[in-house]
Design goal:
With about 475 residues, the chain is mainly β. It has a domain of about 260 residues: Beta Barrel (Lipocalin). It is about 10% helix and about 35% strand. The protein has a twelve-stranded antiparallel barrel with strand order 3-6-7-9-10-11-12-13-14-15-16-18. A two-stranded antiparallel sheet has the order 1-2. Strands 4-5 form a two-stranded antiparallel ribbon. The longest helix is centred in the first third of the chain and has 16 residues. The radius of gyration is 54 Å and the shape is rod-shaped. The N and C termini lie far apart (about 115 Å).
Length: about 475
Amino acid sequence: MNKKTILLGLAACSVFLTTGWTRDYLQSGTQSQLRSSGFSSTFIARATQRTGEAYRVLSDAPSIAAQQDALPSFPPPPAGDSGSDPTLQPIPRPPDTAAAPDLPPVPATGGDAPSLPAIAPAEAPVAAATVNPKPKKNSGSTKSSKKSPTKKRSSAPIVSSGDYPPALPSFPPPYGAAPVYGSGQEIYSQDPLQLPPVSSLPEPSRTTLPPITRDAMMTAPLGEAVSRVLAANFMGLTGLMNTTSADISREGSFKCGFHTSWFALDRVYDRVLASGESGDLLEIPLFFNYAVTNDLEFAFSLPILNYTVKSRILWSKDFRESGTGDCKLAFKYRVFDNPQYQMRGAFGLGFKFPTGSDQKGLGTGKTDFEVFTAFSKNFERIIAHLNLGYIMTGDPNTQFYPDGLADIFYYNIGIEYPHNHNVTVMTEVNGQDWGAEGLRIDVTPGLRYTPTENFAFEVGVPIAVTNDQRYGYNYRMVFGVTAFFK
């Protein structure tokens, strides 16, 4: 025999001699080596004969078949035992799980249980305890087990013990003081799963939601769908060319600008000018507008005049004068604003002061008082305006007005169509009844252009439908500029 065979024989003899007082046994690998070396099966069986102990220290322990979240209590050790013996009390081996997959649940135990003594790692590197709980008669559990082909497992968190010593969860007393080690087993913790409180939610990547419909113009009010430009009219109040609207600019905002109006004299008191008679009038009113509140605004205007008249019907000589005319101060207060019907209403007052020269025909030399109303209503993308006003004139007595002047009643009907954010189309009907001075009705198409949010330009051409007043014309040319400030 060689040396290897001799060594294996000595090892087998030592195992055979110690089987009577030890609990060790030959592993399957050692049995194969002995069998390949020529030892008989009887010899190997005697060397590997197990004791009748129900609980043994195994190198490959079976997994724990637990069905509940609580571990069963262990019986207290005998009074004569001391803590020096690390061997646990025998526990019956559970039946094979493959033969009986449906096991009754382990009953929860109450009361205090003694702490388990620690197993020294040097004496038992890997230890596994197999628990065979006493079945509890529970008809409900038995019925549910028969109906379900698979075994229901606990919903407690599972800790797999793969390393030695494994990182196991903490157990409440009485099991917290006893370390438990296993190999390849699943341990169900009794601790409730504690999740951290949710302090903040994640922010969505897209904070702006898309529009519900493509065409919001049909459902949204006009003020929200298309931005309107609240420019000023000839009086300096918010409106069109001559028409005053019931709208007010935002509180604290102001605007200023000017308008120009030029026309050639075509008739005098409804009489067409004869050969050699002519005349023209240029008026440039400067204005300033300020919104005191969201419902109140005031405007101040000062006209600059330049006129030429060559007609013996009016005076015995020709006149050509230029200068500032009578200034005017106007207030407008919005009385109501009904969002449901998209209607607004305003009331206004005006005062004309004799700042122009009455000797040159630039003013009347008297103070006039004016009262007016303004109404506005939205019809989808069209806004309609209506004015009614009355002017109580003074009683001038100059060479230009030797018979005085009658009071004036006027009306304005205006329609504006915001084509887009920059262009607005306007149309007006302007009527004025001046008593003995005659009647005038104009149709005024116009266009307003806003290149930026701070400027607005407008142009219009009033066309006379009828005009039998002192200064009659067929048409006028009107141009205006408004600057906005916040």
